Amino acid sequence: MQVEKFYYDNKTVRNFAYATIIWGAVGMLAGLWVALQLVFPSLNITQYGSFGRLRPLHTNAVIFAFVGNGIFMGVYYSLQRLCKARMFSDKLSAIHFWGWQLIIVAAAITLPLGLSQGAEYAELIWPIDLAITIIWVVFGWNMFGTIIKRREKHLYVAIWFYIATFVTVAVLHIVRSGELPYSWLQSYSWYAGVQDALVQWWYGHNAVAFFLTTPYLGLMYYFMPKAANRPIYSYRLSIIHFWALIFLYIWAGPHHLLYTALPNWAQSLGVVFSLMLIFPSWGGMINGLLTLRGAWDKVRDDVILKFFVVAVTCYGMATFEGPMLSLKSVSAISHYTDWIVAHVHVGALGWNGMLTFGVLYWLIPRIFKTNLFSKKLANQHFWLGTLGILFYAIPMYWAGFMQSSMWKQFTESGQLKYSFLETSINMKPFYAMRSLGGLIYLAGVLLMIYNIYKTVKAGKLVANEEAEAAPLEKVYVKHTGEHWHRWIERRPVQLMIGSLVVILIGGVIELVPTFLVKSNVPTIASVQPYTPLELQGRDIYVREGCYACHSQMIRPFRSETERYGEYSKAGEFVYDHPFQWGSKRTGPDLAREGTGNLKKSDGWHFRHFREPASMSTGSIMPSYAFMIEQNLDTSSTVAKIKAMQTLGVPYAKGYEYQANSDLVQQAKTIQTNLKTEGIELPPNKEIIALIAYIQRLGKDISKPQNK
Amino acid sequence: MFKFIKQYVEKIEGAQIYPLISMFIFLLFFIALLWYVKKMDKNKVAELSKIPLNETDENCDTGSSSLL
What we know:
The structure holds two protein chains of two kinds.
Chain A: E1 4-9, H1 11-37, H2 51-83, H3 90-110, H4 126-148, H5 157-176, E2 179-181, E3 187-189, H6 193-228, H7 235-249, H8 264-276, H9 278-290, H10 296-301, H11 303-325, H12 328-334, H13 338-367, H14 375-408, H15 420-458, E4 464-469, H16 484-489, H17 492-516, H18 532-543, H19 558-564, H20 602-610, H21 612-615, H22 626-629, H23 637-646, H24 659-676, H25 686-696
Antiparallel strand pairs in A: 1-4, 2-3
Helix pairs in contact in A: 1-2, 1-3, 1-15, 2-3, 2-6, 2-13, 3-4, 4-5, 5-6, 5-7, 5-17, 6-11, 6-13, 6-17, 7-9, 7-17, 9-11, 11-13, 11-14, 13-14, 13-15, 14-15, 18-25, 20-25, 24-25
Chain B: H1 2-11, H2 17-39, H3 42-49
């Protein structure tokens, strides 16, 4: 058969490589900054630079900008070569690249402005969500176009991982972005309370699975054999790895909600599937590491293999730890603590980071037709990276255990031994050590930037790399007795549908009953919708990202009910669009802040927001003094109440037009309260709305019950 | 569509059946997968796993042992 000549597109690969490097450095710098803010609260400079707004910037930058561009770099390089074809369309490649960068820039602008949906890793506002959907479709279109015009009959396992990534991220993004816009920029989640929580962690967990894991496994299955110059240890194992992993992962989300108000059956389902996940995950890790069997001596002098070995080892550690953390008894200790922060950073810095660096060192010299500028510098980067991970993770593990045991300790007479503030002050040295770990890791990245800059300077981009291959036979002669999997390996669309079915089974079985079976969320008669002022205050709470440090979910443990009051019930959150349970307690839980022993005066809250350390000596909470200056925007009240009515919150018909006068009245009451404590303030300030919301928290079920 | 199925789902007594169904689905799926993988042709497996290595890359020294 006639051999065809064609050209690989290396320009797009280069662009994505540059983007992953630049955004990686930015995201890590943001991470270092927020880490330092926990040690030196004075680094919370202006409202745009406060922890609650910058932390989402850090997480979004690392996940979607650093890892996202890393995925596209690796996919665009490997897919072309595995398909023996140029990318389907140069135009689509360009739209994909520039569109994705614009989304990142939009995120970097809106998050510090406080434009947020208040859901972790899904903070971006609805217009950006829409843009992500479009660009994701462009990516999928380009990918499938390439696969369809390929010159290699079989789809190598890496491509399956890419396809599963595309289809699952699309489903996750669409379901999580279920939101009702009430203005050109902002919206409320369609889901409320427990349901919102389930959707959130189904999304959140699978963002880890299908954005941070499956595409990188695809990269591992391509670049590991390339760098080691030997095939993957077991192709059979890779088939089991793929199907078992995508089947099991989708169920595991509820392990983020153990001991919460989520129905018990859903929690159990999450635990069972999380435990089973260890098998495909370790199957994948072993497959990666055993690729080096008989070649371990090469790891000694090959820096790229070193990066890969640490990456795959970190993958193994994180995926062993994940199932362990999903056990209810372990979650009882680890949840809300810095242990979880350590866990995710072993994944992000170790697995994603080190794999990306390895791929960059392998790929950049090749597309620039030159040698790596300095192997020595790359080696130094490797050591800085590895040490950085250790310096980061070990203090955080230690801190997590310490925090949890201090929260749970009682004195002999049966009282809580430590106040929350004491536990928080004890964390400071660990936060400082963690920052050092981050700094070391970032220093390694800076070395890499220099090394790659010099490499690029010395070479010249081969924008269109020549290659040759025979086209596929038009008619495929089927062998007798051929198996279905061989059949599916040649058919990308069927493979995509197969993956979709496999991931939908888990999603549907978990989500549908929680939405439809009434008994799963028992209603509580005394729970009422928020007043307009409280609603405005709640939106400020969301805007400031308070959920990054405060939970609103008391678990049924004595150590928690003693500290925070009655444990949280599913029925308390039915009007919470979005839910604000949080996942971390850098500060105390706030579910019952307005009631019982925790109740403080309006004046206390005023002074605390103005200067937290003045009321709680040693507090690391940022100051929110700007809310004393800023006026509350009441022009949005009508639209907000209307949106809530559409979502099913029972405000009386026509209430939206009365809402603002009620709002003013309640604000005046708080103004009067503040006056008695010697604080003079006009009633139209933001801080008054936030105080109203905080004082409302937990009040519903301390009222006398109607039934 | 939700409205259509809602009345039926609400009648389900205890959603505990879901984990059982799902475990069963997974078990069947997994057994079929293992059976298939075991039956795969050895030469075909070797051929498939070599796909990434069929491509010749630009020769350059990045410290990769493959090039030393």
